[in-house]
Design a protein that fits this description.
This protein has 102 residues and is of the alpha+beta class. It has a single domain, classed as Double Stranded RNA Binding Domain (2-Layer Sandwich). Helices cover 44% and strands 36% of the residues. The termini are far apart. The mean pLDDT is 92. One of its GO terms (molecular function) is ribosomal small subunit binding. One of its GO terms (cellular component) is cytosolic small ribosomal subunit. Pfam families: Ribosomal_S30AE.
């Protein structure tokens, strides 16, 4: 998976990069067809915001999270992405098995 991490009004440190990398690697265990990820981190007064777009086979998964702590915002973001990927995977399996509603 190709990961692109950028920051708006924020210097993305090596520790932030490695933390995001670890969290995104966890997502690959649930869904292995992730081709690329775009992560944007920004600071807005007292809120730390993180936005991610994952490009998977047949779709894109987008999630946003904000918190007072950047690491907590990344945790919230990966939880949201994880739920969306599991839902996407279940939909794909239903379509393959012909159980989808028409």
């Amino acid at each position: 998976m190709q990961v692109n991490i950028s920051g708006h009004q924020l210097d993305v440190t090596d520790s932030l990069r490695s933390y995001v990398g670890e969290k995104l690697a966890r997502l690959e265990r649930h869904f292995d067809r992730i081709t690329s990820a775009q992560v944007i981190m920004q600071v807005d007064k007292l809120k730390q915001k993180v936005e991610a777009t994952l490009h998977v086979a047949g779709a894109s998964v987008v999630a946003n999270a904000e918190h007072e702590d950047m690491y907590a915002a990344i945790d919230l973001l990966t939880d949201k992405l994880d739920r969306q990927l599991i839902k996407h995977k279940e939909k794909q399996l239903e379509r393959q098995q012909g159980l989808g509603v028409r």
